Amino acid sequence: MHSQLPHRAPATEARAAGPAPAPAAHDNNAVPVGKIWQVITASSVGTVIEWYDFYIFGSLAAIIGPVLFGTAGKPEDTLLGALAVFGAGFVVRPFGAVFFGRIGDMIGRKYTFLLTLLIMGGATVVTGLIPSYDSIGVAAPLIVLVLRLLQGLALGGEYGGAATYVAEYSPDKRRGYFTSYIQITATAGLVLSILVIVLTKKSMSDAAFKDWGWRVPFLLSAALIVASYYIRRKLHESPLFAKAKAEGRTSQHPLRESFMNPVNRRLVLIALFGATMGQGVVFYTSQFYAYSFMQSTLKLDLIDASIVLVAAMVLATPLFVYFGALSDRIGRKRIIMTGMFCAALFTVPLFYGLQAYAGPLTEVTPATVDAAGKAVAVQKALTPNLPMMTALTFCLVLFVTMVYGPIAAYLVELFPTKVRYTSLSVPYHIGNGVFGGFVPLVATWIAVWAKAQPEGSFWQQHASLSGLIYPVLIAAVCWVIGTALMKDVRNVRIMD
């Protein structure tokens, strides 16, 4: 089942016919470890900040909804509206992958992810300055929608650049280990966004936070982006790409070579439907939807929900590196498919557990009033068991570490240097952006629909968890396709 190819990448047959290039003067197996860590640090810091910028909107969706769509709307409608705007950023990620992937394969990796960093940061800061719907009407959600589209385009170019850059510096036999540090950045960005939000909220009253305090996490991004840009400017171009460019072996038509060549196109499709599609839904279900579910359905306070999710993610984070390193020894496919299978099988039971340990709901009257000046009664979870909820959430994040830890090395090893940025980025961002990014919106919409069904019907009785049918089905389909078609290779040479 496992096939080890020590001297050629699995996509070699996709490369242009002709005489073999001269032996490479650069050997990435000889790169000093200190240099690799410098590359990982610079790449990771910027990527964490980009994920932070991208995620703070989703983390604040319940609060931003009334800001963008008016305080007179129903809470579930404004939440769906905010999630739809949030999801728009995911839709354009594949287009960002195509656009910036082409630049990265033609001009260079370093230049490209400097550009994406600035676009992401600028859009985030401006989001924190947007007036509310009550002030400027429909212009508020439209402006934020445009900013989310810019963020999605930028993120579409960021991940492929960072993963490719680190992989092209890493020794062949430790590529899974070193690239797994890039895989940590998405979770680290989410943790950072939640921590900044919680600290900001704790520093002021609830009313102030909902009025203007939610803008602070967006505005803080300016300082983070400046620091990250300064760090990344000091990096040199990837040695493998620099050598290919010096020898005139870079692609002038990376899109054509990635998607018109039938062999390379088949690899892109296998990467999408056999790996990244399922990885995307597992990632966003176990972290984003779980976070939203705890607040909107289980009625946990934002602080309690944040404690549960952040604690689970911090405890699970070392496992990204563990499974990345393990994939260097036993192969990528086995670990990714195991995580996919476990997610498809156990996600629903784990969410049932979260619901059970959150405790019954009770009506309380907090010190807030509505527009008419009346006290607002809301539901809150009664005596939630936070340690048990953290343990269950840890299990959900465990599946993420299995499917996500080795996947950068797997994708890098599929494609040749001259089209690697483009070929890697497109399936990754379709899988994560389209299939994964819409998990919160689609699952919430299904739950709202099920709740509106006739009393006593199957859907109405299971409304709170009905939305999980979407990510579980996608993960199961991806597991079937990946098990049948993915090749389990490791430690291959990626030098052209």
From TrEMBL:
TM stretches of this protein: 54-73, 79-100, 112-130, 136-157, 178-200, 212-231, 267-290, 302-323, 335-354, 391-412, 424-448, 468-486
Membrane topology, from the record: Multi-pass membrane protein
Gene3D superfamilies attached to this UniProt entry: MFS general substrate transporter like domains
Keyword Ribosomal protein part of the UniProt annotation: no
Residues covered by the Major facilitator superfamily (MFS) profile domain: 39-490
MF (Gene Ontology): transmembrane transporter activity
SUPFAM superfamilies cross-referenced by the UniProt entry: MFS general substrate transporter (SSF103473)
Keywords, alphabetical: Cell membrane, Membrane, Transmembrane, Transmembrane helix, Transport
Subcellular location: Cell membrane
GO CC annotations on file: plasma membrane
Superkingdom of origin organism: Bacteria
Region (Disordered) location: 1-24
Protein name: MFS transporter
